[in-house]
Amino acid sequence: MTLTVKRINRLCLLTCAPFIGLAIWLLAANMSLTLPDSAFPQLALTQANVPEGAMKLTEGLDQAKQTALGTTKTLKKSIALYQETASSMDAIETIAAAQAGKPYRIYDRRITLKLGAPAQQIESGNIRAQLFAIHAEHFNGYALKVKLKTPDAMKMVLGQDKNGGAETTLSAARRYGAIAGVNAGGFADQGGKRYPLSTTVMNGSYLNGFEPSFKDLFFVGLNDKLELIGGKYASKAQLDSEKPRFGASFVPVLLQGGRLQPIPLKWQTSPLRAPRTVIANYKDDQLLFLVADGYSEKGGSGATLQEMQLLLQRYGAIDGYNLDGGGSSTLVFGGRIVNHPSDGQARAVPTHFLFFE
């Protein structure tokens, strides 16, 4: 048994001797042994099998992700700030609009109170038209206050839509579907036809050419900004400079810049009293029409021109012009004639101011 163990020991020694010798030689030679990455399977998967460029790309993507997250946070803050600012600006705009409209509302309330309470009112996106009753010492009548909101709110038309034609203001209003209408300029009869007096403008064009103002004639109408223009014009260039859209002529001028204008002696007494139609404006460009009733045009009923002047001034008008009167005076509102034409019925005239809802 002992012999067998000794033999086994000798066999092991002989077997291990070469390796022991190699180890001693390596130590004596100061050499190191490096194992390949394959000796470490986990490391081989994470590094040795991934190219260097891919590793750099991965690092770049990680950095981009962090940058994107930071940018997203910044954008969210910017959007929140923008929304807050926009909300504040909307509030400021609303307040500013309300404040901007406040002077207009105050002014409109003041001039409306002078006229009294409206008997009727029509309002739309195009227009606001208010009808008032007038009860003066010597006559009764009506006032029409108009705020034009768009260029489509008002136009001047010819009787039967032709030069020389004539029709009642009610007929013209019905034909055009107008909510209101007032007779316009004077006229002259010739050859069985009724022609507008002197300078007349339709849709920006002169109907019968330009005629310089003479004696007491004037021109009155609206320009392309819906502003009332009027007065005496010595040349076509002078009137053209005001860019008239439409307008008509008659006599005389009653009010300019809020100041009473001298009434020519002839028109103070011929006739003394009569039905009257007057056009005027306010400083905010609203229009005012006054129509005075009278049972004839012979001088015994209706209003004097001085009385119409005083009414315009009392109502706060700026400029005022006398339109054709007598039996021509007609005010249409809501599809009916509201005044009482002195002929007993409406007179056919060549020009009409019409208003549209």
UniProtKB/TrEMBL annotation:
Phosphodiester glycosidase domain sequence ranges: 176-356
UniProtKB keywords: Glycosidase, Hydrolase
InterPro entries with a match to the protein in the record: NAGPA
Molecular-function annotations in GO: hydrolase activity, acting on glycosyl bonds
Top-rank taxon: Bacteria
Name of the molecule in the record: Phosphodiester glycosidase family protein
Species: Paenibacillus lycopersici
Lineage: Bacteria, Bacillati, Bacillota, Bacilli, Bacillales
